[in-house]
Amino acid sequence: MATIQGVAPSMIANNLDPAYPTHPGEVLKDEIAYRSISQRQLAAGMRVSYTQLNEVLNGKRPVNAEFALLVEAVLDLPAEPLLKMQARYNMIVSKRNGKFLEKLNKIRNAAAMF
Question: What's domain 22-111's superfamily in CATH?
Fold first, then answer.
């Protein structure tokens, strides 16, 4: 890896993966707490079940495009950054999944023959 002014690219802050990836639900949870909105109020406003909202806020369910657009409609938060945050979260979690990495390495080895 080439260095930039003596610093390896893998050591530049913007290139580092966080120790604990942030699920977009955590950000939404903070936002609704800041606005003093209850989860039940938000779920009703979004016309989703309380369970669905709670699972997203607790990182047990991913934010999909429809959910992000509902958040945008109710809280006036842009949907796209939430989706990008979810994609980044998914990438980091996948890169740390041992079984998946094993599979990925086998595929890379097999693909090297092409």
Answer: lambda repressor-like DNA-binding domains (1.10.260.40)
